[in-house]
Amino acid sequence: MTITPAARWLWLLPETRGALETQELAVILRCYRKMTGLSQVAMGELLGYDPSYVSLLERRQRTINDRQGLAHISRVLGIPPHALGITTDEDADFLAALQFGESTVRLAEIARQAGRAAEAVEELWPLVVRLEARLKEGRVDYGTASLLARARATLGTSLGHVLAEEQLYLAAYWTGGALRLARRLDDGGFLGHVLRMHGNELRKANRGGAAIARLTEAAERSHDEREQGQTYVLLAWAAGEHGNAALHDESVATAELLMGATGPSGILFTPFSLREVRMRGLMGTGRATEAAELAQSRPGSGEAPAPQWAVIEAVTSADALSAVGDLTSARALYGEALSLAARLRLPHQV
Q: Per residue in 288-340, pLDDT tens?
């Protein structure tokens, strides 16, 4: 029997997670009926049981101990098998793998931020494939869904650093998958993070309007000032590329205020990165002269928050100077970017 979409996602809700944690069939059946609005008659039809038998199960006057019967209920109602005490060796192995999965995602994110995005993709891909297979089987609990959402998001952002420009839609595809799953989880902070990541990948894929919509929602949902700051840097970037000068300038100003209040953080919410995003936005909104003036007061490459940002800044400064006809300076900066990218093994940045 195929699991209905409602059953597949039902067990991610806060109200149902508590029922699963009891591992009591009576509690789980009552919770399922309450959340779906089914009568005992309808539940009986769904499971192939007499309604009176469903009533006895819910009142703990009957129980099911055989593995086949419990597996049948698990399949029909989309209940993770371990919640009914019928974990197989494969399930036990999977649950153990979840613990390693948490570390895999964290290490992949560290590698991505350090400029080793290809390494992050290699680490994440086997984990994502395994989690996706679990999702398709319908055996989805909160821990699995949460890990898969984080793995999808990190895989997408890592792909965004290594794919060719014409393939960047694939990065947005994976972060979009993370967003769909994140909306089903009861974690507002994580949803804001995924909205921010997906918005940035949409920007890279030239989906400016969609990127601005996701980043605006992320800014509205965030209650942490540093996370808001990171979001406004990305929003300024997307608005500048989309030609929205007012939104770009407003986002830059907001990011500067937040940075003044909280201090820099990460590789994005820094004066170096914000300056580069501002320069791009000035060019994208027809203010090449102002962008060139900013390019002439360059920070040292040692101030870059990550290796790739030093390359990005050099290219952007070269673009700005080229736009106003200073080809000699632009040519020197393009050469600097190429040399730096080759030395740091970051050719995709150029």
A: 999 999 999 888 767 888 888 888 899 999 999 999 999 999 999 999 989 88
Average pLDDT of span 49-57: 95
225-241 vs 188-204: helix axis angle to the nearest 10? 20
Q: Which residues contact 340 (CB under 8 A, 6 or more apart)?
A: 301, 310, 311, 314, 346
Beta bridge partners of 1: none
Contact 28, 20 (CB under 8 A): yes
Q: Which residue has the tokens 């929003």?
A: 235
pLDDT in tens, 200-214: 999 999 999 999 999
The pTM score is 0.77
Q: What is the CATH code for 5-85?
A: 1.10.260.40
